[in-house]
């Protein structure tokens, strides 16, 4: 017999899904910007490396969103790393 | 969602795979066909037989375009090589964009049936027949889900090595799981590589933030720095005919030092500021973006030369090239093809498993998933066969001939989908697989009756491209018919009880 799925459970899954898709994309975008500005190489090269890294970060974030114990923790991790990356990108400004 | 890392990953694997699973199957199978894009193009244009000198052929094509499309702002050509006989040309014609395959001897399109050829599968693979940019965005999202499904699948699967050697046939769910595991694990490096590099090919559209961070809205500077070597200049307004095109192309071949000509762009043709850009054939090296040369179209003077040697961009180009598989000599090309089939089959068996392993929930959604899988998986090969049938049966010279082929593809697929929805899955599988078998098995016969290059003739003349295509069609047809027969004879493993539908 199928276990009854509670509303709390369903909301948790929905929340993690949004965290993985929207949060994961935002995190990857922020990491891309941070790497593109922080890497000590020509800016075209830095942008290229950053783009490849971002594509590795996004699936990792999605896995994270479903691996941790609760939806709240999933969000917390993604928002923390994305915030840090965005702050680095903002502080550095465009690559000279 | 279940508690525990491996359980939650198993849950994620199932749902990430299901959400766009049918789309992923279609992308995987059309991508697999795209491995032989050039060969399919030649098979679909049986009127073209020669594979001559690519310099002479491309020069002839440019001479033809000077008369046929003198007002186009630019012509884009793909030189013929040992895999594709025709020259592909495209250019803007007013508001229309024209695409033509040109004969390598005359440089003209006369007498060649109009078809998209293998280009159709290539385009569908990442544009999904949707308007720009939505098809590409959807394809990217599907690719990302596939990546998540692969990673969570690997985590779920702790017995990778043992399952490599395990295939229990005739045991219902257990057999499906074994098949899914063997096919998935066997070519796992390929699956990961092709999925990651596939998402990467569209990354400038889907994840531009690494570029935006440093260039903002200044795309001109961005292109100049990230993808340099492209020579641009304005039209002068003074008319001037193109110079010695053959000499320019011959010079490009010499400079590529044994490499061949790939793409040729003629910009501002008929103007004193005409530029001929020549790209090295990407079949000659792993990296996708090869050497670029720009010549003055009138005087033939070399204006610019560029070869990529920056480590990051080169890495990107190699990853891109790995996905395109253009570098591959024939052994690796067949490996790409077989691994692509394995990936398609992994997705298909995963979709079947989704319903087989959830016997408790035989509700509407469950039935829908089971039946959609039948129409998608068995219907797509039928549609591909229909595309090839239409190529042989639609009269040469018919208006919108390529469109007729494409409609044959989608109408047959839609019909198979409806059929799959209407029939009980057990019957639907057997009947559609039988249809698929007939469609592919009879294809060489149709080709032999409608062209002079049927299987007997191509075997006698050693025409391996045509013989190979027909033999693969026969193999697919036989395989499908045997599967259909097996499905038809198979008795249900256990008497089925009807359960009340759960909402």
From TrEMBL, chain A:
Keyword Transmembrane attributed: yes
Ranges annotated as spanning the membrane: 46-67, 74-93
UniProtKB keywords: Membrane, Transmembrane, Transmembrane helix
Highest rank taxon of the organism: Bacteria
Protein name (record): Iron transporter
Annotated organism of origin: Edaphosphingomonas fennica
Automatic annotation (TrEMBL), chain B:
InterPro entries xrefs: PepSY-ass_TM
Keywords: Membrane, Transmembrane, Transmembrane helix
Entry-linked Pfam families: PepSY_TM (PF03929)
Transmembrane segments: 12-36, 137-161, 182-205, 334-356, 368-390, 402-422, 434-452, 464-487
Keyword match Signal: no
Lineage: superkingdom: Bacteria
The keyword Transmembrane is annotated on this UniProt entry: yes
Protein name per Swiss-Prot or TrEMBL: Peptidase
Organism of this sequence: Edaphosphingomonas fennica
């Amino acid at each position: 017999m199928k276990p009854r799925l509670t509303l709390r459970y369903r909301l948790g899954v929905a929340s993690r899904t949004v965290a993985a898709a929207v949060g994961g994309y935002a995190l990857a975008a922020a990491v891309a910007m941070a790497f593109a500005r922080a890497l000590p190489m020509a800016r075209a090269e830095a942008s290229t490396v950053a783009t490849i890294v971002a594509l590795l970060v996004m699936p990792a974030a999605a896995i994270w969103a479903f691996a941790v114990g609760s939806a709240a923790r999933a969000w917390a991790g993604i928002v923390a790393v994305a915030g840090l990356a965005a702050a680095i990108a903002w502080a550095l400004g465009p690559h000279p | 969602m279940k508690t525990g890392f491996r359980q939650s990953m198993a849950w994620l694997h199932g749902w990430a795979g299901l959400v766009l699973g049918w789309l992923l199957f279609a992308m995987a199978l059309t991508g697999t066909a795209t491995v032989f894009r050039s060969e399919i193009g030649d098979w679909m244009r049986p009127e073209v037989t020669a594979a001559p000198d690519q310099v002479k052929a491309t020069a002839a094509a440019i001479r033809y375009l000077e008369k046929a499309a003198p007002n186009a702002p630019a012509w884009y050509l793909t030189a013929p090589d040992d895999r594709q006989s025709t020259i592909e040309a495209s250019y803007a014609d007013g508001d229309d964009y024209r695409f033509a395959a040109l004969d390598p001897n005359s440089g003209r399109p006369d007498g060649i049936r109009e078809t998209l050829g293998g280009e159709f599968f290539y385009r569908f693979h990442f544009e999904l027949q949707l308007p720009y940019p939505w098809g590409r965005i959807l394809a990217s999202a599907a690719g990302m889900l596939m990546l998540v499904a692969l990673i969570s699948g690997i985590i779920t699967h702790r017995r990778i090595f043992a399952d490599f050697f395990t295939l229990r046939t005739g045991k219902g769910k257990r057999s499906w799981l074994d098949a899914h595991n063997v096919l998935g694990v066997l070519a796992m490096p390929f699956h990961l590589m092709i999925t990651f590099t596939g998402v990467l090919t569209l990354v400038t559209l889907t994840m531009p933030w690494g570029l935006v961070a440093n260039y903002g809205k200044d795309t001109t500077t961005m292109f100049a720095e990230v993808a340099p070597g492209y020579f641009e200049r304005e039209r002068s307004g003074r008319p001037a005919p193109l110079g010695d095109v053959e000499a320019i192309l011959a010079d490009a071949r010499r400079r590529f030092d044994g490499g061949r000509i790939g793409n040729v762009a003629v910009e501002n043709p008929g103007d004193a500021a005409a530029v001929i850009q020549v790209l090295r054939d990407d079949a000659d090296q792993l990296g996708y973006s090869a050497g670029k040369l720009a010549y003055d179209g009138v005087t033939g003077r070399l204006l610019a030369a560029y070869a990529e040697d920056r480590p990051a961009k080169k890495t990107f180009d190699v990853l891109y090239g790995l996905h395109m598989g253009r570098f591959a000599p024939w052994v690796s090309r067949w490996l790409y093809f077989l691994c692509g089939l394995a990936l398609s089959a992994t997705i298909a068996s995963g979709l079947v498993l989704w319903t087989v392993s959830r016997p408790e929930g035989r509700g509407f959604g469950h039935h829908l998933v089971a039946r959609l899988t039948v129409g998608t998986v068995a219907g797509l090969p039928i549609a591909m066969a229909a595309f090839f049938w239409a190529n042989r049966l639609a009269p040469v010279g018919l208006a919108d001939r390529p469109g007729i082929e494409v409609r044959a593809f989608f109408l047959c697929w839609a019909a198979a989908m409806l059929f799959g929805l209407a029939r009980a899955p057990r019957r639907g599988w057997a009947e559609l697989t039988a249809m698929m078998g007939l469609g592919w098995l009879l294809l060489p016969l149709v080709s032999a009756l409608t062209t002079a290059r049927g299987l007997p003739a191509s075997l006698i003349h050693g025409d391996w491209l045509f013989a190979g295509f027909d033999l693969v069609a026969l193999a697919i047809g036989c395989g499908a018919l045997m599967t259909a027969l097996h499905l038809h004879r198979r008795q249900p493993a256990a008497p089925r009880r009807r359960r009340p539908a759960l909402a």
